[in-house]
Amino acid sequence: MKKKITQFIVYFIIWLLLTWSLNYQEVIVGLGVALLAMILTKDLFPDELMKLLNPLRLLLAIIYIPYLIFYIILANFDVAYRVLNPNLPINPGIVKVKTGLKNELARTILANSITLTPGTLTVEVDGDDYYIHWINITSEDPKRQKQIIIDRFEWMLRRIFE
Description:
The protein is 64% helix and 12% strand. By secondary structure, it is mainly alpha-helical. A 3-stranded antiparallel β-sheet has the order 1-3-2. A hairpin with a 2-residue loop joins strand 2 and strand 3. The longest helix is centred in the middle third of the chain and has 30 residues. The model has no long low-confidence stretch (mean pLDDT 90).
């Protein structure tokens, strides 16, 4: 029951944010829409999202967005510099790195974070192993590769989801 009430409240808050109005008519319609959405989605509200309602986890999830954007911008500059300066080395290839994340949603967000970062592309996920196309392989050591590609995202995702 707690999950259903939380689900209803989340849907209602989303309605209020989308309408950006506290007009009584829109609030009443929003209550109806939130109730209908709750009934229609049944068990589609994952338990991982319930964990995010913890204030500390929610704060870390909000912080993760600018954190990810920072690394995306850094990687954009790196790739642009490599394109504009032909003397910089490019050593493309596919590397295999292992994650310690157990939560499926966290692993999916990790794969997407890697892909969103220019210069890296998650090609395949096989269990704990991620196969990543990397524009410039700087190390043959798997631990160093994991440190460069995954660790900057993994530590925060672990705190949010596990």
